[in-house]
Amino acid sequence: MGNSSVDVADAGGLKTRGPPSSGPKLSKLAAIGNSKYLGLYLLAPAFLFVFVFFLTPVVLTGIFGFTNMSTATGITGGSYLVSRSSMLALKDRHGLDEIADDLSKVVYTIDEDGLAAAAQGKADAATLVEFRDKFLGQSFDNRRDIERAIKSLDSRPSSTRVIKAIAANFERSVLNIRFDTEEDLFAAVSDFGVSLDAEQKIALSDVAYTGWVFTTDNFKRMVSLPETTKTLINTMFYVFTTLILFNTGFALVLAISTHYMESRPAGFFRSVWLLPRITPPVLYVLMWKWLAWDTGFLSVILEPFGVEPRNWMLDSPANAWTFIILINGMVGASMGMLIFSSAIKAIPQSLFYASEVDGATRIQQIRHIILPQLRFPILFITSYQTLSLMTSFEYILLATEGGPGGATEVWALTTYMKALSNYAGALEYGYGAALALVLVVIGVTLSIFYLKLFDFKTLTAPPKIE
Amino acid sequence: MSGNYRQWPMILFLGIVTVPLILMYVYLFVDTVTNSPPGSMIPNEFTTEHWRFLWETIPGRPSIWVATWNTFVFATSTTLIVLMISSAAGYSLSRLNMPARSFFLGSIMVLHAFPTVTLLIAIFLILQMVGLYNTLIGVILVKASLELPFGIWIMKGFYDTVPWEIEMAGIQDGATRFQVWTKLVLPQVKPAIMALGIFSFLAGWSEFILPLVLAPDNKVQVLSVYLAALIADDNNFDMALFKSVGVFYVLPVIVLFVFFQNKLMNIYSGGTKG
Amino acid sequence: MMHYRTALAALATTAMITIGSGAALAEEVTITVWSGGSGPNDNYRIDAIKIAADFLEREAAVRGEELSITVEGKPYTQWDEFKQAVTLAAEAGTAPNIVVAGHEDIAAWAQSGLIVPIEDYVDVDSWPINDIYENLFDISSFNGMLYGLPQDAEARPFFFWKDHMRGIGYSDADIDALPGKVQSGEYTLQDVLVDAKKIQDAGLVKPGYGFYPRVSNGPDYWQFYLSFGGQMEDGSGKLVFDKAAMTKFYQFFVDAVAAGVTRKNHIGTPWDQWYGEVASGKAGMWHGGTWHYKRYTTTEGLDDFFGNIQFSLIPAGDADGAANTITHPLVYLLTKQDDDDAIAIAADLVKIASEPRINALHAIKSAHLGITKSEASVDLYSGDRWAREATERLLPHASAMPNNVNFGQYWEIMWGGLEGSWTGQKSVADAIADVETELRTTLGDKIVIR
Known about the structure:
- The structure holds 3 protein chains of 3 kinds.
- Chain A is elongated, with a radius of gyration of 35 Å.
- Chain A has 3 domains: about 1-60, no CATH class; about 80-210, no CATH class; about 220-460, MetI-like (MetI-like fold, Orthogonal Bundle), CATH 1.10.3720.
- Chain A has a two-stranded antiparallel sheet. In chain A, strands 2-3 form a two-stranded antiparallel ribbon.
- Chain A is built from 24 helices and 4 strands.
- Chain A is mostly helical.
- Chain A has helices spanning about 1-10, 25-30, 35-65, 85-95, 95-105, 110-120, 125-135, 145-150, 160-170, 180-190, 200-210, 215-225, 225-260, 265-280, 280-290, 295-300, 315-345, 350-355, 360-375, 375-390, 395-400, 410-420, 430-455, 455-460; strands at about 80, 110, 140, 180.
- By secondary structure, chain B is mainly α.
- Chain B is built from 11 helices and 2 strands.
- Chain B has helices spanning about 10-30, 65-95, 100-110, 115-130, 135-160, 165-170, 175-190, 190-205, 210-215, 225-230, 240-265; strands at about 35, 45.
- Chain B has a two-stranded antiparallel sheet with strand order 1-2.
- Chain B is globular.
- The relative contact order of chain B is 0.13.
- Chain C starts with 6 loop residues before the first helix and ends with a strand.
- Chains A and B meet through helix 3, helix 13, helix 14, helix 15 and helix 17 of A and helix 1, helix 2, helix 3, helix 4 and helix 5 of B.
């Protein structure tokens, strides 16, 4: 008996409830070695999906938080570019004014090397001969002038592209040219006649690189902005108020009250309360605006009573918060309602009948029968919804956009705005990722706190398996 | 529900609290089939013109039926993938040793703490590496993966309630573990499968930001993006049309929920409830 | 010796071999065009490229070459989604050949290498490029090179509802003289507040409707900063934060709220409501863009625009500033592609699409302004009263936001401060102090703080 149980247990890593009668079939069992592997096979697709599309992005985003990635740096790749802005940076950050000025010059020189290179393109020989005759030894300080010079020739090329191609061969300066590698940049600079020592090379490379680099500036920035604290406080206030009032609190109310109703009204209320969750956010917020705006329902209804029409949503921070909490709360309550309702349904009816026979009131039933059974669901909803609320911003974005004046700006909203939404298209992914990292840290801390608070370990040791 | 208590206090209380919600939705529906003079709340005529998108294609947009089909494909595929993988993984995890459970639940929480929005760029990079950027399949895979932790947790919870006797009996009768799983255990967790299926479909149907960023092409546009584009169009703002499209968008899910309400309620009942 | 030079020289050589040799080319090219913020009236953004393609094919035929161009266009109605799509597509290697975007995108996209300068492919001395308005030419340039060609121009005027002005004592002659007074600096923003109050007190408009500005962030708000003498960028490429000008700018809106002519939470009002109200005379004075003409007369059903509305530059704030308007043109930009020939063809298409007659189609249909000087003499354009008057009154005085990689951040911070003071969350002094801190932290030495 023990033997067979152990065999089965070993074969699948299972804990058995009790020894079944050992029979001739068990040797076949033990031979089904793939029961262990079955577990792995069943787990593999999940692991693959979550790893590739969830975990890896999470790790990548964590890494991006330590970079200055933005629209200007691009996501992949970068080149070395001597431009007006990089030369400004060379002056400001490294004080290399003279070098910056030297590198900013544009020089086109008509010399033998250039003519030879132009000739290689098998361009019209007549053109080049005339060009040499008229312009050998001259220099131009901008591209348009040399192109005009080429255009002034009698045997000028008919195509603009050829003209530009010829001109390119005479460019000696490095301004506005994209170099793929550092070495190319340095070689071109030295060819141009500007000599750099090692330190200056590092400085140049630093300002000329257009791609993203690793940096802790994001966090420094976060810490030194006064908004950060305010946003943090807003977020905590928002999350906990909505959580307690609606996501957990009102969800319980809904679940319990519909429990005490017949199925038709119960079904009706549950469906209505699920509507906010399934309505597209854009539409849902629009309906609230219809209710709360200056020209909205509330204003119109209250006007005959002498209340001046006003924007109930944006009038003051208190107003804005009230509506934000209502809007998000009504959406959040539905999930809790569903989970709690089904948990209540799982309570055996006999318990209720018995207590009624004993003369219990509803309140007593709630306190002694329902709530204890809901301990685990409440924990789950509370922790899950805390995180949901912390990372949600859509409704706030649509309703008040963080207004009035940043009063309802929460951390997740700032993250979105910085990373993906800027009027001039200047998206800052790196900073957004850094903001997200902070959110994760807070979220994880809170989760651990919840687990300790609700004594999670004992809750997850259900006796069912043993 | 017991017959001994009066239910009207409950109904009254909930009714009052629900009034704003009902008001907003009733007005929404009314608005889709009526016209009101500007600045007034009272409609003055019935019309079906706001529903014209059903038979006309609005200039500059794909047909609503294309978008609906895409949304349907998206939601259904995500649901199927989530169901299949979650039921497999949940079963596997349910039968493994204890320490993994807490860790697993903990890791679900951690993943959930990451705002999806900020993952977008990283997800884009990965999709691009596998060549699935701007395809519906790519978004489906991503969405399914993001839903998986929750799904696995739900399924696992359900598997935990399935008694061992069923499996042992099956094994004793000579079935392989795999057969035990598919023929004996799965039917026991049907309520979970239904509930998870509905949740996933709901999530897939209303997903907005992922298709918006990862599949912007018109051919693969989903209803949520279509709807958002309608309201962002400064030049051709038509509030009533927008509301009608919105209602059209929401209707299938409402219908789904009304029909399957009871199944959803059974998440906790387990399969062996007598 | 020259081997390290990327782009131009190497490709130049190839180009000379294939093109300079004059061999007949049988080429089939597909050119994709994406445009952002485009509604049904903006179809010429893409259609102009199609017209240009037809021309290029004919020119090729005349030269004895075979060229077949297919143009695929995709308009996006929004901006956020469009810019994300362009950026991501570029990373994925599937960027469209031509992009119609705001000029402010040039800086970031040029830096990251997403776009290439059109000057690498076209002769700036040729027609119609040499006819483009100078300020538009500059707006489409970055780092001294012409990156794109302006696709449409617009300006952002100040509007007055004539009946309400009459109601507070302006005669018709006075109203006609208003634009002149605004331009010379005689009529300032302070006068705007005074008149708005009068209009409200006379009961001609409801409270909060005297001065009815834009309801969301936009380039328009920089106009008020300019009105008080502010500068956005100095000549050397650094941004400028003029504290005094910004303070007066914020203070103006706070004063408007205090006087009751503008609502405290005006920002966030739905656009359709706003358009409906200004087009039907519910507001006294407001500001907007030249494309509003189309919106009022078609969607909002305003029959007599000129009889009801007077328009001018944005008034100066005080003696330090001047009347101004900002133009926010969209530009045709060329994305980096592997196939250099495709870029060259795209460049030619964009050049042809910018010719006066073709551009006028877009300008008139979508109520934008022209981009070349001769466009003003194209019949379609000159025959349109709005195009004529707006071009004359506004374009010569128009400035634009700078093409600067960090301008986007400066803008967001400016807006945050404005919103904070407007809604009364912060005092103007606090808002300015916060803006300064944030600018220092975020932009560091890239901005000059005066």
